[in-house]
Amino acid sequence: MNTKKWLSYPYTIWMGIFVIVPLFIIIYYGFTAEGGGFTLSNLALITDPINLQSLWLSLELSIVSTVICLLLAYPLSLILHGMKLKSNSFIIMIFILPMWMNFLLRTLAWQNILEKTGVINTFLKFLHLPALELINTPGAIIFGMVYNFLPFMILPIYNSLSKISDDYVNAARDLGAGSFMTFLKVILPLSLPGVVSGITMVFVPSLTTFVISDILGGSKVVLIGNIIEQQFKTVNNWHTGSGLSLVLMVFILLSMAILTKYDKESEGKNIW
């Protein structure tokens, strides 16, 4: 017992240094002015028309990308589960393999594919077809989000489906339920923990991203993550950047609280 306790110390120290301390720094700068006095003006900057527009656009794109990921991941997870493979390691490797490549490099690769002189438009030009405006659009950002975050939706859903015993499905069919009713009354409710986990794991990074919008959106599509990044990196205004970060954190915590409420098997529900 004491050995397990000692083994947890490195993780506790790591969390304290790289999570708790930076969080308190953000809170400090978010609630103080440049002179060090307490203020709420940094949080109130979210009501600025530009910041508010970027926040709503971030929410819109993150919701759309999350829905698309769910619509793609759930049927795929059902198909993989129906294959009844003896080993799950091969399936897991397929989805983790692209993630071995750096996140930035994967996104830059799609920039080269979607840009005006990229692979797609070059092919269209070869066919004597007009070029498409793919890069620097909200659609390109959604595509980048779906591509990068889809594995985070597939894995938890597939994991939940793999835990469903065939006895439940067979019992439902023995009682006269068809394929659709079996899915609706048995499979879907039992897989909701994976769905909730997947939605959380896709929605949160989609809402806070700035790299994807920087690369695939350019300066034409500005999300709230880009504005926060500019405050820290370009303007060097930690107070404004921290205030906007805290507002964004509230949206994230609210979404996680709502999703956890519907996750009947959530292992982290005691947090709330």
From TrEMBL:
Keyword match tRNA-binding: no
Primary residence: membrane
An annotated GO BP: transmembrane transport
InterPro entries named among the record's database cross-references: MetI-like (IPR000515), MetI-like_sf (IPR035906)
Transmembrane regions: 12-31, 55-78, 90-109, 140-161, 182-204, 210-228, 240-259
GO cellular component assignments: plasma membrane
PROSITE patterns reported in the protein's UniProt record: ABC_TM1
Top-rank taxon: Bacteria
Pfam families tied to this protein: BPD_transp_1
Compartmental location: Cell membrane
Residues covered by the ABC transmembrane type-1 domain: 55-259
Keyword vocabulary terms for this entry: Cell membrane, Membrane, Transmembrane, Transmembrane helix, Transport
Topological category with respect to the lipid bilayer: Multi-pass membrane protein
Family affiliation: Belongs to the binding-protein-dependent transport system permease family. CysTW subfamily.
Name of this chain's protein: Spermidine/putrescine transport system permease protein
Organism, as annotated: Anaerocolumna jejuensis DSM 15929
Lineage of source species: Bacteria, Bacillati, Bacillota, Clostridia, Lachnospirales
